[in-house]
Write a structure and sequence with these properties.
This is Arf-GAP domain-containing protein. It is a single chain. The protein has about 100 residues and is an alpha+beta fold. The chain contains three helices and three strands; from the N terminus they run E-E-H-E-H-H. Helices cover about 30% and strands about 10% of the residues.
């Protein structure tokens, strides 16, 4: 969480994420953590930054690296969605359908 890019939710840019998807390597706000849980553990495994225990392998994460992979092909004019329905659609596109993933 010391890295500047990890001080914001990777999906909606909310400040101060307290959740993480450890298999995707991203930090999340509580709203986006709930949406990630809806994807299922075969796609995203969510843990609390403070309340859960972490293995050394699970702390090798960061929003910058994840965005370079999962958002590599987002259009330059892209703006992060803010409503729940558009946010859920964006999260599903990114991590379930892998629509914007680096080739």
């Amino acid at each position: 969480l010391r890295d500047e890019d990890n001080k914001y939710c990777v999906d909606c840019d909310a400040k101060g994420p307290r959740w993480a998807s450890w298999n995707l390597g991203i930090f999340l706000c509580i709203r986006c953590a709930g949406l990630h849980r809806n994807l299922g553990v075969h796609i995203s495994r969510v843990k609390s930054v403070n309340l859960d225990s972490w293995t050394p392998e699970q702390v090798q994460m960061g929003n910058s690296r994840a965005r370079a992979v999962y958002e590599a092909n987002l259009p330059d004019s892209f703006r992060r969605p803010q409503t729940d329905s558009t946010l859920e659609g964006f999260i599903r596109e990114n991590y379930e359908a892998k629509k914007h993933i680096a080739k």
